[in-house]
Amino acid sequence: MATRDNKGNWLDGQGNAIPVKYVPANAKHRDRAVRKVHRQVANLSSRIAAVKAQVLDIVDTYLDLVADSHGEEWK
Questions:
Q1: How confident is the model at residue 53, as a pLDDT?
Q2: Which residues contact 28 (CB under 8 A, 6 or more apart)?
Q3: Of 4 and 1, the one with more pLDDT
Q4: Sign of the dihedral through C-alpha 49, 51, 54, 55
Q5: CA-based torsion, 23, 24, 28, 30: positive or negative
Q6: How confident is the model at residue 75, as a pLDDT?
Q7: C-alpha–C-alpha distance, residues 41 and 60, integer Å
Q8: Across all residues in the chain, what is the average pLDDT?
Q9: For residues 4 and 11, is the Cβ–Cβ distance under 8 A?
Q10: Which residues, including other chains, have CB under 8 Å from residue 3's CB and lie 6 or more apart?
Q11: What is the pLDDT of residue 2?
Q12: DSSP code of 11?
C-alpha cells in the first residue's frame, strides 16, 4: 500500500511527496487492489479470531465437564 501524507500526496521510498497527478495509473490501480484485499483479509482475520475463541470456550467447557465427572478439576 502506498504511504501518503496528510495532503494526499504519495510518498516515495525516500519520503518525498509526489502529487497524485504524477502517480502512474497502474500504481493507483495496484494500490486500490491491495487496499481492498487488505480490508478483506483483516475482516477474515477478525472473524477467525472470534471463532477460535468460541471453539476454545466449547472445548474448555467440555473438559470441565469430563473432569467433574471423574472427580477431578480441569485447569
A1: 98
A2: 20
A3: 4
A4: negative
A5: negative
A6: 72
A7: 28
A8: 95
A9: yes
A10: 10, 11
A11: 86
A12: E
Residues 6+ apart with CB under 8 A from 64: 74, 75
Q: Is the pLDDT of residue 1 over 90?
A: no
In this structure, are residues 11 and 17 in contact, taking their beta carbons and an 8 Å threshold? yes
Query: What is the residue type of 3?
Result: T
Amino acid at 74: W
Q: List, for residues 9-64, the tens digit of each pLDDT value.
A: 999 999 999 999 999 999 999 999 999 999 999 999 999 999 999 999 999 999 99
Phi-psi region of 48 (alpha: psi -120 to 50; beta: other; left: phi over 0): alpha
CA 58 vs CA 30, 45, 55: distances in Å: 42, 20, 5
Tell me which long-range contacts 9-12 makes (C-beta under 8 A, separation of at least 24).
none
Question: Which amino acid, 6?
Answer: N
